[in-house]
Predict the 3D structure of the following.
Amino acid sequence: MTALIDRRMGIFLAGLFVLTVAIPLGNLAFTDRFVPSYVVSLFGKYLCYALLAVALDLVWGYCGILSLGHGAFFALGGYAMGMHLMREIGDRGVYGNPLLPDFMVFLNYDALPWYWLGFDMFWFACIMVLLAPGALAFVFGWFAFRSRVTGVYLSIITQAMTYALMLAFFRNEMGFGGNNGLTDFKDVLGFNLQSDATRAGLFVLSAIALAAGLLIAKAITNSKLGKVLIAVRDAESRTRFIGYRVEHYKLFVFVVSAMMAGVAGALYTPQVGIINPGEFSPANSIGIVIWVALGGRGTLVGAAMGAIIVGAAQTLLTGWFPEIWIFVLGALFIFVTIFMPQGVLGVIENTLRRRPAARDLTTAREAKA
Amino acid sequence: MSIQLALDGVNRSFDGFKAINNLSLTVEKGELRAVIGPNGAGKTTMMDIITGKTRPDTGDVLWNQHIDLTRLDEAGTARLGIGRKFQKPTVFETQSVEDNIALALKDDRSVWATLFHRRSDADTARITELLDLVKLTDARDAMAGDLSHGQKQWLEIGMLLAQDPELLLVDEPAAGMTDAETMRTAELLRGIAGKHTVVVVEHDMDFVRALNCRVTVLHQGHVLAEGSLDHVSANPQVIEVYLGR
C-alpha cells in the first residue's frame, strides 16, 4: 500500500498551502494591496482549471478514456451554481422582479420554469452541482460503456455530447439565459462577490477543493480499483476474462470524474462572474486534454500543474502578444508532445533523479565487484 | 465422473464462412484434454464461444449440465469459474508481476469491494506460492512488460491459477518457450488436472505427447477424431488433413 501523499503530492500540496496562506494574509497585512484582487480571482480560476484537469487525468491517464467532452461537466456544475447566484440577486436586478431573473423578464416569462425551483436554496444548488454532471455522465457512460464503445469512437461521441449541449444552451427557449448565459451576480450566501474578502475566500475554497480532488483521485488510483483501471487501460479484454465487469469500473470512474469537474465549474462561475454556453464549446474540452498532456498524463499532480502553467501562460501571452498568443500556445503544445512525452512533471522528475540514480548504479556495481 | 462442459450442435459463421460447423464435444470434470487441428479449424472460435466472447448462431453450450454459457459475457463466464489464457501472452505490462497476480486472485470483483480492498496475509501468502510455482519469485517487483516472452507466458499461467478456475482453457501455452520450459509447462498442466479441468489447444506435437491425455482433432469447425494421441495419429483422415503435411 503506497502512501496517499508521496513526495510529488507532498511538494505540490505544500506549495498550494503556502500560496493560499500567503496571498490572503499578505492582502490583510498590506493595505496597499499585496496582490491585486483581480489577480487573486485569476489564480482562483487557474485552481478550478487544475481541478478540472485532475478530473480528466483520472479517466484518461488511468483508465484510458479520452473524453473530449469534459468541459460539459464543468459547465453543468457552473450553471448549477450560476442558477443559485441568479436567484440570490432577488429584486436587485434591472427589472426589479423578486422572483424572475432579468433575462426571463426580458423574454416575457410569467413564471419560473420548474427546473429553476429549489435553486434559491444554496444546499440544493450544491447537490445539483454534483448531481447534474454525475447524472449526465452516468446515463452517457451507461450506454457507451455497455455497448463497448472505446478509443477514438468514444472520444468523438463525447465531443458530440458537449457540442449538442452547447447548441441547446444557446437557445433562449431552454431557459438558461441563451447566448448571454447567467451573469450580473451580486453575492453568494450574503457575501458581496466584488469584495476582496469574498474573492480571497473563493480562492481559498478553490485551493481546498483542488487539494481534496487530488487526494480523492490519489486514493482511488492507489486502491486495488486503481490497479483494475490501469489494467483496463492496458489490456481491456484480459481484464474482462479475469472476471471484472469493465463497464462498471469505467462508469464509476467516469461519474466520479464528472462530479469533480462539476465542482470545479461551480467554483469557477462566481470568480469569473459569468457562465455562458461558450463553456460547452468543443475547443474548451480539447484544451483540458492539452493541459493534462502538457503537465504529464497519469500523474494527477502533473495534470494540475499543466492547467496552471497553460492558464498563466495564456494570461501573460495575451498581455504581451495579443495577436499571436494562440500560435505561441500551439507551438508550446507541439514542443511538449514531441520533446517531453512524459510532460513537464516527467522532465522535472527525470532531471532531479538523474544524479542520484547514477550514484546508485555505481554503488550497485561496486557491491557486485 | 460428471460432465463439466458440453457443446452440442454448435454452429457459428462469419460472413458466410462456417468457423464452427455442428460441433459437439464433452469434457469431463478434472479431465486434461488436448485440442489440435490445422489453422482455421475453429479452435480459437470454440474458446470464444465457451467464454462468452462470441455467441453461437445455433446450438447449446452447457456448464455442469445446467448452466447455459451462451447467455453470459466474458466476465460472467470468468466468475463462473472459466479461466482463459490467450495465444499471445497478455499481461498488465505497466504493473508489477506481484500486482498482476494480485489482480487475478480469486476475490469479490465488484467495484465497491475492489475500492475498499485490503490485501490480507493469506493473499500475500498465496501470491508468494504462485510466483514460486511459475518460477517468477525473483521478478516479483519487476514490471510485467520487462519480462521475456517465456516469462510472460508463465506469468499468465500464474494469473490463470490465481483465479482458481474450475476449467482452464489454455491456448498454445508452449509458443515461444524453450524445450525445457515446454516440458515443464506440460508437467504443470498434468499436475493441476484432476483438481481442475484443463483444455489445451496446441500445435506442438511433442508437447501434446508430453501431456499424455485424450486428444480431440478439429477440422473445418467440427470434430474429426477423438481418442489417445496414438489412436488419432493412426486415423487416415487425420493424417490427410493435418499430420501428413
